[in-house]
Structure of MBL fold metallo-hydrolase:
Amino acid sequence: MKYSMMTVGPVQENTYILVNEKKEALIIDPGAEGKRINKKIESLEIKPLAILLTHAHFDHIGAVDDVKARWGIPVYIHEREAEWLSDVKKNGSAFFGQHVTAQQADHLIKEEGKLTLGSFEMDVLETPGHSPGSVSYYFANAKAVFSGDALFAGSIGRTDLQGGSQRVLLESIHSRLLVLPEETVVAPGHGPTTTIGNEMDSNPFLSGF
């Protein structure tokens, strides 16, 4: 599996396009600039299978409807944030003077576990704290985890939004992410990629917990 990252929108959110050897694709967090994302997908000559959302904040869902409509693919999100897609207060867009919504998701994630889509196999990890329904997608074969806004290079997600909790977030990071192999690449919702080992060694938010 290979993946490419597109940084989109005013908040510089990272959208990921994952492609396997069969030219199947998964789109993680199409946050904005739907036309640009669709053009990228077209240029790669791949077959999208699904949209996976790490959480429902506005900067991660702004292009969901555009991508879904173009490719006719289902959307996955944790059930705790199913209603956030259509609620501008819960998804945070109202507080930034915007009105960002998305249609109802097709599949609600109810618990952690294995998820298979086409030839993709992944572990869905519940990593709440930044938001109540935040999840991370771990691909063991690719040695990569897509952490949304839970864990960043040298930082962690903000916890001052609705349903946020720094205690819960730190517990999530330590119990779900830092237990992954140290060489695992962390592909976050904002900023550069890092590795689990790097964050264990140098992330100032994770020491002393």
Summary: The chain has five helices and 14 strands.
